[in-house]
Amino acid sequence: MNSIEIKVTELFNGLTVEELLKAWLIPKAERHLIRMEKRLSLNGIIPNSQSLVNSDNTIIINFKEKSKFLPEGNPDLCQVLYEDENLIIVNKPDNMKTHGNFEGEIALQNHVASYCKKAVYVVHRLDFETSGTVLFAKNQFVLPILSSLLEKRKIHREYEALVTGHFPQNQFTINKNIGKDRHDSKKRIVSKTGQTAITQVEVLKKFTQLSLVKCNLETGRTHQIRVHLSSLGHPILGDNLYGGQPNRRMMLHARRMIITLPFSFKKIEVISNSPSFDQALYRSKIVME
Questions:
Q1: How many angstroms separate the CA atoms of 132 and 286, rounded?
Q2: Where are the alpha helices (DSSP H) in 5-141?
Q3: Domains of the chain
Q4: pLDDT tens, residue by residue, 176-216
Q5: How many CA atoms lie within 13 A of 75 on its CB side?
Q6: How confident is the model over 54-85, as pLDDT tens digits?
Q7: Does residue 181 carry a catalytic annotation?
Q8: What angle do CA 17, 63, 140 make, to 5 degrees?
Q9: Pairing relation of β-strands 155-164 and 252-260?
Q10: Exactly one of 127, 181, 239, 278 is catalytic; which is it?
């Protein structure tokens, strides 16, 4: 049995234990097990579900975690942007998988696990060619909470992309459903029957034949930014799958993440840099102009 210790913040003063667990976005089934198996202590005492909590309280929750074996990675390849007892945000290089797809495959998840000296769990992923911020949970208890925060848009992800051509507006929203391509399992397409997909776009800079844009995700569909920009006739440079012009790397980078932390609901911001993106941006600008 593992445990997690949480200091109650002023935001939750006066809530009952049950209300607190719900406010923390702990899933209903898990709340039930915590209550039935008496896995929660309040200042060292097992409370009932209607006990009140205050900001000077310490809560300890015991939870079960299935052991997960991850082949050893290289901790030196884990570039930490933020870390606490529950989660870790790292900077993924381009041309690296977020997680392995078969037994024994080494990916970013393995490097992060080797750095943390324990298994870590993927909250969201970046494509192989994309660099930037990636969030991992440090235990299985916090994983569904982070997933819920992502679903409720409490985790804000901001990307930069270099695309061909210019847009008629400097700020606009792409609201086009995305579905699977029946003819190519690797691809996604704009489809009326697909899942809702919304991307906010802002033009940061215009070059002679290129535009550098900022993209904010309101949804998180596979290849969302790539499909949306390509559907407008402005594919990302280096995106061979969606019609982008050849380039040394695909020009998509997850630059910024703003996250509402579990339990405290404190907001933090992390920014990642990518030498390969910035160097390729400079080279592409010079060549294309």
A1: 24
A2: 17-23, 28-36, 108-116
A3: 2-63 (3.10.290.10), 75-151 (3.30.2350.10), 155-258+267-272 (3.30.2350.10)
A4: 999 999 999 899 999 999 999 999 999 999 998 999 999 99
A5: 7
A6: 998 999 999 998 878 889 999 999 999 999 99
A7: no
A8: 110
A9: antiparallel
A10: 127
